[in-house]
Structures
1.
Amino acid sequence: DSGVTQTPKHLITATGQRVTLRCSPRSGDLSVYWYQQSLDQGLQFLIQYYNGEERAKGNILERFSAQQFPDLHSELNLSSLELGDSALYFCASSVGGGRGSTEAFFGQGTRLTVV
Amino acid sequence: AQSVAQPEDQVNVAEGNPLTVKCTYSVSGNPYLFWYVQYPNRGLQFLLKYITGDNLVKGSYGFEAEFNKSQTSFHLKKPSALVSDSALYFCAVTPRGAGSYQLTFGKGTKLSVIP
């Protein structure tokens, strides 16, 4: 168990809908990262938050947004869902937020299926 | 931008034999390099990392990796494979230095250890 908790584990929704994925980082970790894993794109970095502020942005669509709350948990919001958004979404956390020498710990992921 | 190549989609090895999973990278400046493993329906688990110093890095479960700067490689190795090592292995890189931290992953290599 990595200590990173993601809910829900599975989510099935229709095209056009909006969903929220939740992540609780390991105790003491200030950074939260979101990744999308799909068969064709592999693991893609979406966004990083550090202590409540956006730190880095990757291949995140405009339909997607995230935030990190004062208690350090994070939510990833996906709206106007399309079939192609079906993927496994991972949250990871780490102590640091800058130099990258500390490893990130991953949750078990949320499998999103858009029908 | 950084990138990672894992040239083999699948590696098959007999139990008890040595295994190698290959990884090459491209990054500006010096890298931080990581290996993660993903078991079915699980999140990614950290195996080992190269930050600086000794080019041979030892990690969890008897795995090690060798950093070769001239060949820009970071191959994962284990002297004697176990059936339980069968999983999906990801190499990842992030550039060294202050600032944002975002792991760039390879496409993954599926390791099958045959009894």
2.
Amino acid sequence: QVQLVESGGGVVQPGRSLRLSCVASGFTFRNYGMHWVRQAPGRGLEWVAIIWYDGSKKYYGDSVKGRFTISRDNSKNTLYLQMNSLRAEDTAVYSCAREGVEGVAAADYWGQGTLVTVSS
Amino acid sequence: DIQMTQSPSSVSASVGDRVTITCRASQGINNWLAWYQQKPGKAPNLLIFAASNLQSGLPLRFSGSGSATEFSLTISSLQPEDFATYYCQQAHSFPLTFGGGTKVEIK
């Protein structure tokens, strides 16, 4: 079955960097686009970024553009999110999600997430 | 950016009730809209894609409708496992955006 497992979260000081990983299994990773979505404590969902199945295109949410970078290694079935210049408002659970097949245009499988806390 | 506005923000209902949640887009998105269900401490679960297509394996009491800027999610007969928060999300253009969520609570 499809599994997405995130790691790399933790407590980090403002202005510092952190890299999240998401290991995929149960499907052909290289065939699917992938998202990062975050949820601040007690708040709603916020879309962070998407990467095409082959890494050829990437798009970002306004609040992270220029600071975060999404990437992938299809040989390792792994998705990444490099987060630089972190701010307190980046504190959230970060989840990776698989983009559905063409025509679905939605995230059909999600990981459980990893918590990032930005605090001095 | 396209703004997504959900209403109501919360609704109290009883088992067996019909519940409808509305999502409005700030500009036309054709039918590029998805609905998700999220229970506390759990990952979101895709319910509906392309406005009206029920995700495989899900009960028929969930249905979606709408196009352009007005969309709705209907639960025809609320079950105990349906008490959760529901989010809409537009997939028309980047950045993708979610609605603020609708919490369905037990009356």
